[in-house]
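Page 42, continued from yesterday. The earlier attempt failed because a stray header line got pasted into the input along with the sequence. Redoing it now with the clean sequence only.
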Amino acid sequence: MANFKEHIDVWYKYIKADIKETEEGSWVLAGREAEDLLGNIVDDHYQFKGSHSFAGKRVFNEDAGHKNKINLIISGSK
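This time it went through. Structure tokens are written below.
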């Protein structure tokens, strides 16, 4: 697992990197619009007829050693 200084070194490398802006594809824009729409409908938690949905949650990824964002989690029961 990386220590604090290693995290700062990686962050500094990305800050100093010469990255050219690129135009986002239509699929990226469509995904962003869908996430915004979902966020407006669901908020953080929505319950309907025994089903639950959670938007924008961070879940620990053991393989990567950090949390990843999950856009939508839906659970239900019969």
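Notes: Strands lie at 45-48, 51-61, 66-75.
Reminder to self: strip header lines before submitting.
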